[in-house]
Write a structure and sequence with these properties.
heterodimer, A: alpha/beta, Fumarate Reductase Iron-sulfur Protein, Chain B, domain 2, 3 domains, 18 strands, B: alpha/beta, 4-stranded antiparallel beta sheet, 30% strand
Chain lengths: 485, 272
């Protein structure tokens, strides 16, 4: 076979998109191992060779952190893997995470010219990012980025999710003294408590966090900012020159329908945190229990709903139903997640809305009273509004229900911090270009400013905020001797 | 960390946690995790020593996690301690306040009683327990109370009867401005039922199952006056007359079977 690097342009164009090997759905839905097995080197090189190295690469524009995609793809073809990962690291500290959980289909891959032609699919950029990051990890290749001389300036980063981790990494590289404060007992934020093992192995998150420590970032777990420390205390007493807030949108929405307090009704946050962070799937080896539902209903149809549904299957559920009031077209989840869930046996009760949770005589969930919906006129967002069908009530039998209809800003920190302006939903107001808030020396980014968004958007905002913080710290000049530490 | 055992099943730990001690106020709680495999357990602080930088928790061994906590020796530590969490008790001069403590709830009640005593209130304390062996902090509570009554279910000390009996007698004979009740859920339920009849405002402190303690999981939701509240951020203290106690009891027993299994496994491991 000709090597991809020796192929002509025409030959390259004929390579079909390389599918990533996945575990069989009927086996993988019983355990938590990662679903995708990644590309072999040969597959990666073939896939990378599908890139036509166009003059005006829109993929870079489509990427929230502007990775030089054609650049690293060409290096994979040339088998310069160390250079390739180095190229990726120039733009993101979390390639193994991004390769797995970024919605490439609406970002880099959506604008790839290869996919513009009828019947052709875009280059598998996400798969290739995952390949190169996994290659680096399994070969012990470290990010050899040069760290600037120490500036003596201290930065506090609140939250160790995607936004916080990006800010911390970027500022550490620029020579600042960075401490990350995390409320949980382990760093990683939503990557750790929210996204399940089978979609993103926790070893990967630990590895990326370890990489941060190697850059000199200090991580202080069990620190709830707003309780254990206050922002003003960090700035004025502990001598931090700047604070970045990336605490996420942690407060789960509930349906506010009767019976929601029954035993067996969970927020997705609680269910996933028990399963992921607390490792309840390994109970009683781990001490945290989880209710192992036999018949499970998931309310909502986003990525988190799919995660909860697939987790329930792995914890032994006989049936898992996604209950969603609109139709399949409007489901907010990534298509790949819906596809994976369906393959594994998750069922869909579409155009269905819950009315009430019904309890057994012992106060445990016994089922959900629902009604059928039909799509009416479009709402402000352009999506057709679901309207109840008269006399269509029916009962869904279930012993576990997981509510996955989104989260909102957690007021814990913002309630006790003076000078921080919020929008009407309680999100922190921040300059969209710099992340600067209305409070002196304080920046913010990620879901606490955006509402609910994605890992990569949070990272993009983190990058912008890091640049702005760095500029500010530089403007302060060298740390004076009479300044407090 | 210091430990002393008042009774075989009631344990006190004094934990070095300077930053938590610095910020802690009466009524707030911490979440503790013994080791890597451990559960996150919320416990309201019984005492804080800002100078020494320590916090004190007192608890009864009721399951695997508390049993695990109780095995820690002086000098050993919890893997994780986070806090102070929850909203602090609102303390001000109101007049006559009756503080009702049941079992280890007395530990939580102590800093609140002291706060009310120091705020210049006339403090009457009622302590209840199964028997004299389960009474804790008698002297400490007496030191911050103008009057104190003790009730035991078996009559082994003080009044032979429930705290509600002693409370009724007080409510019948004098004006009470507020009642603070902290103890087992049924005790708080019956105290609130009684004080409602007398129209006396009542505060209770709830301890539902929770994970993060910051409002993220919603596992600790309680029904207060028909509305859902999160005990971790809106509480742990609530208007006793508004709490749906039956719902709380129900949610507290959600993992009954799993808890039993967890403890059985612990003993099996020890026997190997």
């Amino acid at each position: 076979m000709i090597r991809p690097k020796d192929m002509t342009k025409k030959e390259r164009r004929q390579i079909p998109r390389q599918l990533m090997t996945e575990r069989h759905p009927k086996q993988r839905n019983k355990y938590f191992d990662e679903v995708t097995l990644g590309y072999s080197l040969k597959e990666a090189q073939l896939e990378a060779a599908r890139c036509i190295q166009c003059k005006d690469p829109q993929c870079i524009v489509g990427c929230p952190v502007s990775i030089d995609i054609p650049g690293f793809l060409e290096m994979i073809i040339d088998h310069k893997l160390e250079d390739a990962i180095g190229k990726v690291w120039e733009s993101t500290a979390l390639p193994a995470v991004c390769g797995r959980v970024c919605p490439q289909e609406i970002q880099c891959e959506a604008v790839c010219v290869v996919g513009k032609k009828a019947g052709r699919e875009p280059v598998g950029i996400g798969n290739l990012e995952m390949f190169i990051a996994d290659w680096a990890r399994s070969n012990g290749v470290k990010n050899k980025v040069e760290i600037a001389p120490k500036t003596g300036r201290k930065v506090a980063v609140v939250g160790s999710g995607p936004a916080g981790v990006t800010v911390a990494g970027d500022l550490a590289i620029k020579g600042h003294d960075v401490t990350v404060f995390e409320a949980f007992h382990k760093a990683g934020g939503v990557l750790l408590y929210g996204i399940p093992e089978f979609r993103l192995s926790k070893d990967i998150v630990d590895y990326e966090i370890e990489g941060l420590r190697e850059l000199g970032v200090k991580i202080e777990c069990n620190s709830v900012i707003g309780r254990t420390y206050d922002i003003d205390e960090l700035l004025d007493e502990y001598g931090y020159d700047a604070v970045f807030i990336g605490v996420g949108a942690g407060l789960p929405n509930f349906l506010n329908i009767p019976g929601e307090d029954l035993t067996g009704v969970f927020s997705a946050n609680e269910y996933l945190t028990r399963a992921n962070l607390m490792k309840a799937f390994d109970f009683p080896h781990y001490d945290t229990p989880i209710i192992p539902g036999k018949k499970v209903a998931i309310l909502g149809a986003g990525n988190v709903a799919m995660d909860a549904a697939r987790t329930a299957l792995r914890l032994g559920a006989k049936s898992v139903k996604i209950i969603y009031r609109r139709s399949r077209e409007e489901m907010p989840s990534r298509h790949i997640e819906i596809h994976h869930a369906e393959e594994e046996g998750v069922e869909f009760e579409l155009l269905t809305s819950p009315l009430e949770f019904i309890g057994s005589s012992e106060g445990r969930l016994a089922g959900i009273s629902c009604e059928r919906m039909e799509l009416g006129e479009p709402d402000e967002g352009g999506r057709r509004r679901p309207v109840p069908i008269k006399d269509s009530q029916f009962f869904i039998d279930c012993d576990l229900a997981i509510i996955a209809i989104g989260t909102k800003a957690n007021p814990l920190l913002t309630n006790v911090t003076e000078g921080l302006e919020l929008n009407e939903w309680g999100n922190i107001k921040a300059d969209p270009k710099t992340g600067k808030t209305t409070k002196d020396r304080v920046w913010a980014g990620g879901d606490i400013t955006l509402g609910q968004a994605t890992v990569i958007l949070a990272m993009g905002m983190g990058r912008d905020a890091a640049n702005s913080i760095d500029e500010y710290l530089k403007s302060l000049g060298k740390k004076g001797k009479n300044e407090k530490n | 960390m210091g430990t002393f055992k008042n009774h075989d099943t009631i344990i006190l730990n004094e934990i070095e946690a300077p930053q938590i001690a610095k910020k802690a106020l009466p009524g707030q709680f911490v979440i503790l995790k013994a080791n890597e495999m451990g559960e996150r357990i919320p416990l309201t602080m019984a005492d804080v020593d800002k100078k020494k930088g320590t916090i004190t928790i007192i608890y009864m061994i009721v399951g695997k996690s508390t049993r695990l906590f109780s095995t820690l020796e002086v000098g050993e530590g919890f893997q994780d301690v986070v806090g102070p969490l929850g909203s602090p008790t609102h303390i001000e001069k109101r007049g006559t306040i009756v503080c009702v403590g049941g079992g280890t709830g007395t530990a939580v009640l102590h800093p609140i009683t002291r706060g009310n005593f120091e705020a210049g209130n006339n403090v009457i304390t009622i302590l209840g327990a199964r028997s004299r062996d389960y009474l804790i902090l008698e002297e400490k509570m007496a030191a911050v109370s103008h009057e104190m009554k003790i009730c035991t279910d078996d009559g082994s000390k003080g009044i032979h009867g429930f705290v509600t009996d002693a409370l009724k007698e007080i409510l019948d004979t004098q004006k009470v401005d507020e009642v603070i009740a902290i103890g087992p859920v049924p005790m708080m339920k019956f105290v609130s039922k009684l004080t409602k009849e007398y129209g006396v405002p009542t505060q209770v402190s709830l301890n539902p199952i929770m994970i993060d303690g910051t409002g993220m999981c919603g596992g600790c939701r309680v029904t207060i006056g028909g509305k859902t509240k999160f005990a971790c951020v809106d509480g742990p203290e609530f208007d006793g007359h508004q709490v749906d106690y039956d719902n709380l009891i129900n949610r507290l027993t959600a993992y009954r079977h799993e808890e039993e299994r967890s403890e059985e496994c612990m003993f099996e491991d020890e026997n190997i």
